């Protein structure tokens, strides 16, 4: 099966290149089948190496793989080659590839309209609530109104069930994020919901808008429901990861 890359539909400059992998086109066996570039999920190292070789054939250089920790640290792609503990990276040099890996969390790719800086961020709910998108925007050192953001495939609003502590983590900072949550189970009028369905796309758009980024594209692809195209940790447990990559050409 050939690789099946998702290319962002956004008005980025022509020399900004980006795509997100799906699970098709790799060498891994079940349950990681087949394009799994993640080395930390229990897959056969030889298969992961082959998947990365296939992936890098479409890239100008090896990406800077991150040790993602659901935080808000952003690193400059030019600072080194060792995998740092971070959840976002940026690049201003040609051919330096930024990448994040996800399997339900939200990958967000960034560029400015001038095409002088790009970035990739891994936004699970903890990183999102912790400000990883805002930190990435700030690190780009471009006017927020000149930044474009693309939201890749993530767990959708009909599948992302969370506890009340997640809802409160967002609402305590920005009350308007209440619109991104709805009760997971109907209850009586005097019964407070214990579980909520969260719209991670809406949460990201709200956080980005507050940071001044309103040119936001993508969203709507559900990793949980689309078993053919996407890995989903919440659905499968042992599974691979998709990679979302961006660079200046």
Map the helices and strands.
Layout lengths: L15 E5 L24 H12 L17 E3 L11 E4 L6 E5 L3 E7 L5 E6 L1 H6 L1 H9 L6 E5 L9 E3 H8 L9 E3 L11 E4 L1 H11 L4 E4 L14 H4 L5 E7 L1
Parallel strand pairs: 2-3, 7-11
Antiparallel strand pairs: 1-12, 3-6, 4-12, 5-6, 5-7, 8-10, 9-10
Overall 3D shape: globular
Q: Biggest sheet, in brief?
A: 6 strands, mixed
CATH level-4 homologous superfamily = CNF1/YfiH-like putative cysteine hydrolases
Biggest sheet strand order reads: 2-3-6-5-7-11
In N-to-C order, the SSE pattern is EHEEEEEHHEEHEEHEHE
Oligomeric status of the shown chains? single chain
The total domain count is 1
The mean pLDDT is: 94
What is the β-strand count?
A: 12
The second-level CATH architecture is: 4-Layer Sandwich
Ranges with pLDDT <50 over ≥5 residues?
Answer: none
**Into which percent range does the helicity of residues fall?**
10-25%
CATH structural class: Alpha Beta
Provide the gyration radius in Å. 18 Å
Tally of DSSP helical segments: 6
CATH-defined fold name: CNF1/YfiH-like putative cysteine hydrolases
Portion in strands: 15-25%
Secondary-structure class:
alpha+beta
N- to C-terminal separation? 28 Å
Features:
249 residues; alpha+beta; CNF1/YfiH-like putative cysteine hydrolases; 3-stranded antiparallel β-sheet; 6 helices; 12 strands; globular
Summarize the structure.
The protein has 249 residues and is an alpha+beta fold. It has one domain: CNF1/YfiH-like putative cysteine hydrolases, CATH 3.60.140. The chain contains 6 helices and 12 strands.
């Amino acid at each position: 099966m050939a690789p099946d890359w998702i290319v962002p539909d956004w008005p980025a400059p022509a020399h900004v290149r980006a795509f997100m992998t799906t699970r098709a086109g790799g060498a891994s066996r079940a349950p990681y089948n087949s394009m799994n570039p993640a080395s930390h999920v229990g897959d056969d190292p030889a298969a992961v190496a082959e998947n990365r070789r296939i992936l890098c054939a479409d890239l100008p250089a090896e990406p800077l793989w991150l040790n993602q920790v659901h935080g808000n640290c952003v690193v400059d792609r030019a600072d080194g080659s060792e995998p740092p503990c971070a959840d976002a990276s940026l690049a201003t040099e040609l051919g330096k590839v930024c990448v994040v890996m996800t399997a339900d969390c939200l990958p967000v790719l960034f560029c400015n309209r001038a095409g002088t800086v790009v970035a990739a961020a891994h936004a699970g709910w903890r990183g999102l609530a912790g400000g990883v998108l805002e930190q990435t925007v700030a690190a780009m050192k471009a006017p927020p109104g000149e930044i474009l953001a693309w939201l890749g495939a993530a767990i959708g609003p009909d599948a992302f069930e969370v506890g009340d502590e997640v809802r409160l983590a967002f609402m305590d900072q920005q009350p308007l994020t209440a619109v991104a949550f709805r009760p997971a189970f109907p209850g009586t009028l005097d019964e407070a919901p214990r579980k909520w369905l969260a719209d991670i796309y809406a949460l990201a758009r709200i956080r980005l808008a507050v940071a001044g980024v309103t040119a936001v594209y993508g969203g709507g692809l559900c990793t949980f429901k689309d078993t053919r195209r996407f890995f989903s940790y919440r659905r499968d447990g042992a599974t691979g990861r998709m990679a979302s990559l961006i660079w200046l050409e």
